[in-house]
Amino acid sequence: MTGSAGLGLRGTVGHQNNYETSTELLARRLELTGALEKKELKIRQEGGVLIDLSGNVQVTVELLIEDDWAAPVALCKFSNLYTNAVPVLPKDIEFKLKTLIYPDIKKDIIATLDYSFLYRQIISGHRHLPEARQKIKLNHGFVKNAENLKLKKAPVTLLKAQDIKPKIYELKIGDQILSFDNTALKFETVDEATAFLRYIGDLVLKNMVISKINLNGNTLAASSYEAIKISTVQL
Q1: Is this structure's pTM higher than 0.85?
Q2: Fewer CB near the terminus (10 Å): N or C of the chain?
Q3: How far is CA 226 from CA 65, 180, 223, in A?
Q4: Cβ atoms within 10 A of the Cβ of 228, count?
Q5: Pick from 161, 192, 177: which is nearest to 231 by CA?
Q6: By C-alpha distance, which of 234, 221, 223, 217 is closest to 180?
Q7: Strands (E), 19-128
Q8: β-bridge partners, 122
Q9: How would you classify residue 229: left for phi > 0, otherwise alpha for psi between -120 and 50, otherwise beta?
């Protein structure tokens, strides 16, 4: 409504009769609710107000593994390798062992997947709140694993045995692993292995005494440094 009172004043009055809302893009990242039973997983996905469901559903399953443990692995941990950028003598560095254990899984963990779904389609009244005023259609279906062309009628691999077995890193010359104070040089990360390899190189570069670092029971020769390699081992 627009009008004039003859006094040089003008105004506009209006109204809006439809329901509107806005949702940030991040709100489209929705959390699923559900329940995990012995042989069944129930999942419920809901969209935000006035937002249709879209995209794929990603489900994370946590497994409780009750297998026996594999044989423990001793990993080397070194500190204070340097003082003021100068390598510390091997006899003076701090050295300790970390015990690594992991489940001894020998086979992949697989599951046969059948699934059913119930899809709620809004036919009309999508702007109505509460939802009881909406006209809907429920679509229900069931897909057996033996008929699932998407999964190629195959079991689903929940966990590969090799995925849970950790990798370690060894310092070797050929097939022989180096040792420190009669302990095989095995590391938890490649960065730790690289740091110790660099430390040996700095000892050689500065013509410092190499002690406690052995190969086949003999003190490592400075001339052997260039032959040392980092080897990745899948346990």
Answers
A1: no
A2: N
A3: 43, 18, 7
A4: 19
A5: 177
A6: 217
A7: 33-36, 41-44, 73-79, 82-83, 86-87, 94-100, 109-111, 115-124
A8: 136
A9: beta
CA 229-231-95 angle, to 5 degrees, is 85
Q: What is the pLDDT of residue 225?
A: 95
pLDDT digits (tens, 9 = 90+) for 148-195: 777 777 777 888 888 888 999 999 999 999 999 999 999 999 999 999
d(CA 193, CA 172): 11
DSSP letter for each residue of 113-132:
--EEEEEEEEEE-TT-SSGG
Judge whether 110 and 157 are in contact, CB under 8 Å.
yes
- For 71-104, write each residue's pLDDT tens digit: 999 999 998 999 999 999 999 999 999 999 988 8
> What is residue 155's three-state secondary structure?
coil
